[in-house]
Amino acid sequence: MTDARKPDTEYIKKLFPEVEEIQDANLKDLVTKVWLVAMERGGWERIDSIPFTLLVPPEATLVEHTRRVTRMAMAVARERYDLDMDIVVAGGLTHDVGKLLEYEETGGQIIKSRFGALVRHPVSGYAMAMEVGLPLEVAHIIAAHSAEGEKVSRTPEAILINHCDFIDFDIAKSTAAGF
Ligand SMILES: [Fe+2]
């Protein structure tokens, strides 16, 4: 008997239609795979309604934020011509995958997990990316998209995702503050 609730590749592709923008078939598979690994490890059956941040009132879900950051980054990359679009899309789509380990659901509430208190999502996301075999350039984007990245030299694609992520986060903060 198959479990209808078990997430599969199609579920991920439906959540993140931008996966289809990745030209490299192997990279496309690995982006889908890392989300499935994170869902299984975090114990999530569905991820549609997880908030993207616990730091300000949830203005968007993790899926909406992930798609928005990816599409903003793609728009900038199209204007520049000097960035690797596949890496931009893959990095955008996976930069927050570690949040599936950083958060947990308890009594209908999403809270920070014990794991998340000890290991932030850029670190856990990087680890899962390496585990499934995503290219180092993508794992680097995940590892360096937050403050953790201040300690390394970001690639151009990582600079792009870092900025697009903070455009979305800072606007959420500003909106929450009533501006
Ligand atoms: Fe993010």
Short description:
This protein has helices at 9-15, 25-42, 62-80, 85-94, 99-102, 114-118, 121-132, 136-144, 156-176, and strands at residues 103-106, 109-112. With 179 residues, the chain is mostly helical. Strands 1-2 form a two-stranded antiparallel ribbon.
Topology (elements, then pairings):
Blueprint: H1 9-15, H2 25-42, H3 62-80, H4 85-94, H5 99-102, E1 103-106, E2 109-112, H6 114-118, H7 121-132, H8 136-144, H9 156-176
Antiparallel strand pairs: 1-2
Bound molecules: fe (ii) ion (FE2).
The site of fe (ii) ion (FE2) has 5 residues, from helix 3.
| Averaged pLDDT | 95
Main β-sheet: number of strands, strand sense, barrel status? 2 strands, antiparallel
Secondary-structure class: mainly alpha
Write the CATH architecture name.
Orthogonal Bundle
Number of domains: 1
Folded structure, characterized:
- With 179 residues, the chain is mainly α.
- It has one domain (9-44, 60-176): Orthogonal Bundle (Hypothetical protein af1432), CATH 1.10.3210.
- Helices cover 59% and strands 4% of the residues.
- It is built from nine helices and two strands, in the order H-H-H-H-H-E-E-H-H-H-H.
- It has helices at 9-15, 25-42, 62-80, 85-94, 99-102, 114-118, 121-132, 136-144, 156-176; strands spanning 103-106, 109-112.
- Strands 1-2 form a two-stranded antiparallel ribbon.
- The N and C termini lie far apart (52 Å).
- It binds fe (ii) ion.
- Fe (ii) ion binds at residues 65, 69, 95-96, 165.
